[in-house]
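Course exercise 7: structure representation. Students receive a sequence record and must write out the corresponding structure in token form. The form below is the worked example handed out in class, using 23S rRNA (Guanosine(2251)-2'-O)-methyltransferase RlmB (264 residues). Read each field label carefully; the graders check that inputs and outputs are placed in the correct fields and that the protein name is recorded exactly as given.

STUDENT ID: A-19
EXERCISE PROTEIN: 23S rRNA (Guanosine(2251)-2'-O)-methyltransferase RlmB
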Amino acid sequence: MTVRKPNRPGPAWRRPERATDEPELIVLYGWHPVVEALANPARRVLRLLLTANAAQRLEAEHGAPRFAPEIVRPDAIDRLVGPDAVHQGLYMEAAPLPAPTLESMPQDGLILVLDQITDPHNVGAIVRTAAAFGVTAIVTTARHSPAATGVLAKAASGGLEHVPFVIVRNLAGALQTLGERGVLCVGLDSEGAEPLEGVALRRPLALVLGAEGKGLRQLTRSRCQVLARLDVPGAIKSLNVSNAAAVALYAVAGRLAEGAPGEA
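STUDENT ANSWER:
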């Protein structure tokens, strides 16, 4: 099978660097993940399976795909992803996207740092929200985090094509590097000393989120310049981590865009 090369490069600050733990093959299925991947010239497609109905819809809405598909019956895709997966007649195997490095983050970046968040549905939802708010990159570890494929990609609904992952060996070391490069690292913690809306924000900014239940690890907390909490008015005071990410990004992105008092 011939692989069609991308016809133009991705962002200049994306450099090909992968942790050895990262999979060599990414599986994407479902309408939004596959359509967004086909629209991304930086995504190298290796295999594309479509049902006849999906192929007809894809060509009608987006034109002929840049990679020649194999037309298959729905059960052929079921066998690859499992009968419970909602694939909508689209399945893709692709190479991982080239990833940026901590050193190549832009000086106006908005970064998410995930501390051992392992549920692929949660991480996928975070990626989708991050894409909506223009997050520059997501930093996570090679271990104790789900691979950017399959279930995570489906939950991200195409967001993987817009928000790259920076995979690091040591999260505390990565936060130290970001801090040394002038990034304000704000850890979200229920015991934070002040509410997020009271923190003076500036770019570049990193929001650091911990796993549900455990929260931020102690060493991660120590590498954040600020620990802030999300104050909510209702009876339930804790949020699912993906919901917390959405609330925090909404609050932060709005303030950064408006240049609220106290922002640099």
